[in-house]
TrEMBL record:
Record PANTHER family: NITRATE/NITRITE SENSOR PROTEIN NARX-RELATED (PTHR24421)
Identification of the protein by name: GAF domain-containing sensor histidine kinase
Residue ranges occupied by any GAF domain in the UniProt entry: 180-317
Organism: Dactylosporangium vinaceum
Domain Histidine kinase/HSP90-like ATPase positions: 428-520
Pfam annotation, one family: GAF_3
GO molecular function: kinase activity
Transmembrane spans: 27-44, 56-81, 93-112, 119-140
Highest taxon of source: Bacteria
Nucleus keyword on record: no
Record key words, sorted: Kinase, Membrane, Transferase, Transmembrane, Transmembrane helix, Two-component regulatory system
Keyword Membrane found: yes
Length: 523
């Protein structure tokens, strides 16, 4: 605004130095009106754009058609062009520059001023200075933005909101179940095995910690696939080199060595990232020539992109769920739990102050016991909300820790039977299995009146079985919890393509089991 005002004053002084003429006053009045419009309105507003356009047109028109000093008039031309470069970018400044050059040329030709050397020099200088100023200003603007302190840069939450909004829009356009990593892996395995003869196969994906997880597998029996990336195997080589690897030995630790086996590990690459691997095996030597390997590679590109999108979506959903559980735990701990503790202390004080009022004292003692029970329930709920499957501890450790804590609080004898291989299930699957186990244990504690709790957990990816048994009253039609908790467990099991089984326990009690994958192999 200050530069615009100073240049207006400079132009007025130069034009009026030799006397006041009506044409000059009219031009100055029009230019002043356009300058006020361009200055008062917000830079990116349509009104400001109209004001800058008027400044350019009035300046170029007056310099070309009026019998005025063109050099004195065109001193003002860089102002609207530089302003356009700052607020609208280099392209709009270029459009203004072209418009000014066109008007100066056409107007000068109509008025016969193209033969005047002074006019041509003034027009050329005005256009050159305007263009150079706009270019230098945009360069300086980019440099300043690049050097802006980190605290002034857009907040990551704004970028996260933009990306999540795009993800939501894309997810709504996709056909059903296409953001399920397990379902996509099974479909890919079926597609590849239809093209390439094989007796067994698997799709593996990264999970962090130098190991892979089994998303899907096919074959006669479950196999203990090699999932470590620090071993000498085709799986590790394919992951490291991002190239298909054909081997003469099995990539499953449970297959006897020395057999005539052909195995192939093909990486699933999205861009420059290795998303996972597809492993195929045949009991025939030399079953995977280069032509077959090339055929498998022809379908892995698009499959890798779909699988990466599903894995990212799964991770975002898991992070959001974990954050919400932690938030709820903090709110309950800092709010209701603390208030109930204070109520309990108040009841204790009231009991101490009423030594002779036996009836009141008994009522208060009952009330204190009830408050203690509610506080215990809240603390267990907080523990449940905060319980997660540790990246290094595994699913069985998380379930056993929860069972021991609940058992100690409720006076239950807990019997554990844990069997977990070194391979890991996908993080989202482990989280759902933990929640199912927590719900089953909570039902046994709150409603069954049990004395013993049996927790059996067997994990050998992609197989998993979690079984919770109690010796309580069993499931009745009038149970206080109704069927809500059972419905939640069934929904969680269906989400990970597992089977939920609820059966009576002999001689009394209930058994809740969730099974994922095929039955265990014979040992």
């Amino acid at each position: 605004m200050i530069v615009r005002a100073l240049l207006l004053v400079l132009v007025a002084v130069r034009l009026l130095a030799d006397g006041v003429r009506p044409a000059e006053l009219l031009w100055l009045a029009l230019l002043l009106a356009a300058a006020v419009i361009a200055t008062v309105a917000p830079e990116s507003h349509e009104v400001a754009r109209l004001g800058r356009t008027a400044e350019v047109l009035i300046t170029a028109f007056a310099a070309s058609t009026l019998n005025l000093d063109a050099a004195a008039l065109l001193v003002y031309l860089p102002v609207p062009i530089v302003a356009a470069a700052l607020s609208e970018g280099r392209r709009m400044a270029g459009a203004y520059l072209v418009a000014a050059a066109t008007l100066l040329t056409v107007g000068g030709a109509v008025e016969g001023r193209l033969d005047e050397r002074e006019y041509l020099v003034a027009a050329g200088q005005g256009l050159l200075i305007s263009g150079a100023s706009a270019y230098l200003v945009t360069i300086l603007q980019r440099v300043l933005l690049a050097r802006r302190p980190a605290e002034e840069t857009p907040q990551p939450y704004a970028e996260a909101t933009r990306l999540l909004t795009q993800l939501r829009s894309v997810a709504r356009q996709l056909p059903g179940a296409t953001l399920d990593p397990g379902g996509l892996a099974e479909h890919l395995l079926e597609e590849v095995r239809a093209m390439v003869p094989s007796v067994r196969g698997a799709v593996l994906s990264g999970s962090g910690g130098g190991r892979l997880v089994v998303l899907a597998q096919a074959g006669v029996e479950r196999l203990d696939w090699e999932t470590a990336l620090d071993t000498e195997s085709a799986v590790a080589d394919a992951w490291a080199t991002q190239q298909p690897v054909v081997s003469g030995r099995s990539q499953a630790r449970s297959v006897a060595r020395g057999q005539s086996i052909s195995s192939m590990a093909v990486p699933l690459i999205a861009g420059v990232r290795t998303v996972g691997l597809i492993v195929l095996e045949s009991d025939t030597p030399g079953a995977f020539p280069p032509a077959l390997v090339a055929r498998v590679q022809s379908v892995t590109g698009a499959a890798a992109l779909r699988l990466e999108a599903a894995l990212l979506f799964d991770e975002v959903r898991s992070l959001a769920t974990t954050e919400e559980r932690q938030r709820l735990a903090r709110e309950i701990h800092d709010g209701v739990a603390q208030e109930l503790v204070m109520v309990g202390y108040g009841i204790d004080n009231a009991v101490a102050a009423l030594p002779n009022a036996e009836a009141a004292e008994e009522e208060l003692r009952v009330l204190r016991a009830e408050v203690t029970r509610v506080i215990t329930e809240l603390r267990l709920s907080l523990f449940e909300l905060r319980s997660e499957v540790d990246r290094y501890g595994g699913l069985t450790a998380a379930i056993s820790d929860y069972a021991r804590t609940v058992g100690a609080s409720a006076g239950l004898r807990v019997h554990l039977s844990l069997d977990e291989s070194t391979a890991r299930l996908p993080a989202a699957v482990e989280a759902e299995l933990l929640r199912i186990a927590q719900e089953a244990i909570t039902n046994a504690r709150k409603h069954a009146g049990a004395e013993n709790l049996w927790v059996t957990c067997a994990v050998d990816p992609p197989f998993a079985q979690v079984e919770i048994s109690d010796d309580g009253s069993g499931i009745g039609e009038n149970r206080p919890d109704g069927h809500y908790g059972l419905a939640i467990m069934a929904e969680r099991a269906e989400r990970i393509r597992g089977r939920l089984e609820i059966t009576p326990r002999v001689p009394n009690g209930t058994t809740v089991a969730v099974v994922l994958g095929t039955a265990p192999r014979a040992r």
